[in-house]
Amino acid sequence: MPRHVAIIMDGNGRWAKKRFMPRVAGHVKGVEMVREAVRACLERNIQYLTLFAFSSENWRRPQDEVSFLMQLFVKALEQEVEKLDRNGVRLRVVGDLSPFEPRLRDLIRAAEEKTAANTRLDLSIAANYGGRWDIMQAVNRMLATSPEKREGWSEADLETHLAMSFAPEPDLFIRTGGEERISNFLLWQLAYTEFYFTPTLWPDFDTAEFDLAIASYQQRERRFGRTSGQLAGDASSA
Ligand code: IPE
Ligand code: IPE
Ligand code: MG
Question: Which ligand has the shortest distance to the CA of 57?
Answer without folding.
Answer: 2
